[in-house]
Amino acid sequence: MVVAFAMVALLGFVGLGIDLGYLRYTRRQLQVLADAAALAGAQQLTACTANNCTPVQKAAQNALTENGFTGSTLETQCASGSGGLLLTVNNPPCYLGSKTSDPHYGDNHYVEVVVSKQTPTYFSRIFGVNSETLTARAEATLPGGGSCLFALSPSGTAITLILGDFTSSCGVVDESAEGGGFLSGALVCLIGIFDAPYIGVVGGDTFICATGGGASPTTNIHTPNPADPLAYLQPGLASGAPSPSTCGTSTSSPYTGHNGPLTINSTATLNPGTYCGGLTISPGANVTMNPGIYTLTSTSGSNGGLSIDAGTTVTGNGVGFYNYGPNGGVNFLFSSLTAGNVTLTAPNSTNCSGCASAWQGILFYQDPQDTAASIVVGAASWNTRLTGASYFPNASIIFALDLMVNYDIVVAKNVTLGFAYDNVQVSTNFYNNYSELASGTPIKSSIAVLSE
User: 45: phi > 0 → left, psi -120 to 50 → alpha, else beta; which?
Assistant: First the structure.
């Protein structure tokens, strides 16, 4: 009898052990599901718009299906629900309720996934426990990319440095498939220093420059995916900028847009708006630009874009330029070569409260339909300081910036580095301190990573 009673107790403990093992096994499965769903959702973060992030939710739910778990009930933003298998997708994270519990709480650059499953028990039922609700949680994000200069042209010479120095603390990617040859190739660097921690070239190169301690070019790399690392911004920028079809009607300073080409050669204040016909700031002008997004359009083939000439003073903190076109580029015509000072800083987390988040870090955005070439030059000797990304996906750009600003980003079809005028050679220095941007660099990796 003692043995019989002991066997009952022993079998009871064995049964509880089996239930506990099964629950732990299921919990481990749910954690794998949560991790996979969070990664899949974060992979779609760049597809979100201001009011719609369904691609994130759909990707997370598809991850469960692909892992063999079908019929899940989808909830969003910590909504309460019930069901056999419950998937909650939060963007931004909210499950733990505070920044103290979750450092990413309220940050829409992270995707939080919580997977809950009502799991039946077997032997525990004799104690009245028929099921247990198991929960697993994960967070993922898209980290910043390691490169900050991209030349998107699929053929021909995409990056050129004929004479001068280029130094960068972040990588360079040349996407042209042009083969290397005598004074030809996707990347051509002849005289000077080309110093970057990574130089990737889809095709070949002519590289005679010194590396200055940086990496030598790596040729025949695969074309990045996505090829254009800022292509995801197009819908966000378009929705965050004044409508190109609605011209401003101001006739004097302070301007809020303008109906027709606007040339300023005296003291003036500009407010965000649509400047149809483009904006020209002529020698002698003293212009203050209030924070916000400035849309520039062209009304003919001979106007549009932004031109800042020599001997001007232009100040704009928290400004972005949406150059819609379809004509006209962005041109610094030896700006502030004489007395004057040009300082333009892109929107960030503190200087433009009314700017859409997609504009953080973007100074110049030229619509893909506008193929006009641009000259973006900033130099200490010319009193010109520019902080922010220059995005010209279907246009060529001459770029030179020798001042140390927090970050530099260039994404363009073709890039010519360096600039010379009146025996003054402007070199280019790229930095990558994105601390003033809440979401870090606008250039994101194409691969999501788990953060929790």
Answer: alpha
Distance CA 134, CA 124 (A): 16
Q: Residues with Cβ < 8 Å from 367, sequence gap 6 or more?
A: 322, 323, 324, 325, 326
CA 180, distance to chain mean position in Å, is 31
Residues sharing a CB contact under 8 Å with residue 319, sequence separation 6 or more, in sequence order: 272, 289, 290, 291, 292, 293, 294, 344, 345, 346, 347, 352, 363
CA 415 – CA 375 distance, rounded (Å): 10
- Give the tokens for residue 360: 């953080």
Q: What strand order describes the sheet that includes 73-76?
A: 73-76, 85-90, 110-120, 131-141, 449-450
One digit per residue, pLDDT tens: the chain, 452 residues?
766 666 655 655 555 667 677 668 778 888 988 899 888 888 887 766 555 678 888 888 888 888 877 777 888 778 776 667 888 888 889 888 888 888 888 887 789 999 888 777 666 666 666 667 788 899 988 776 789 999 999 999 999 998 889 999 989 999 999 998 778 899 999 999 999 999 999 999 999 999 998 999 999 998 888 899 998 887 668 778 999 999 999 999 999 999 999 999 999 999 999 999 999 999 889 999 999 999 999 999 999 999 998 888 999 999 999 999 999 999 987 644 555 689 999 999 899 988 888 899 999 999 999 999 999 988 777 778 899 999 999 999 999 888 888 999 999 999 999 877 666 678 888 888 888 988 788 888 777 788 77
Q: Report d(CA 287, CA 289) in Å as an integer.
A: 6
**Nearest in space to 366 (alpha carbons), one of 225, 223, 238:** 238
Structure-token pair, residue 61: 């739910």
Q: How far apart are CA 371 and CA 390, in angstroms?
A: 14
Among 240, 272, 241, smallest CA distance to 254 is for: 272
Distance between CA atoms of 54 and 47, rounded to whole angstroms?
9
Q: Which of 196, 109, 174 is nearest to 442 (CA)?
A: 109
Per 3-state DSSP, the chain is made up of helix, strand and coil in percentages (nearest 5) of 15, 40, 45
CA-nearest of 142, 146, 195 to 173 is: 146
Closest to 149 measured CA to CA, from 440, 421, 400, 366: 400
Q: Which of 208, 169, 213 is nearest to 188 (CA)?
A: 208
Domain boundaries along the sequence of the chain: 2-141, 228-444
Q: Are 443 and 229 a contacting pair, CB within 8 Å? A: yes
The structure tokens 């027709």 sit at 260
What letter does residue 47 receive in the DSSP assignment? G
Q: What is the DSSP letter of 46?
A: G
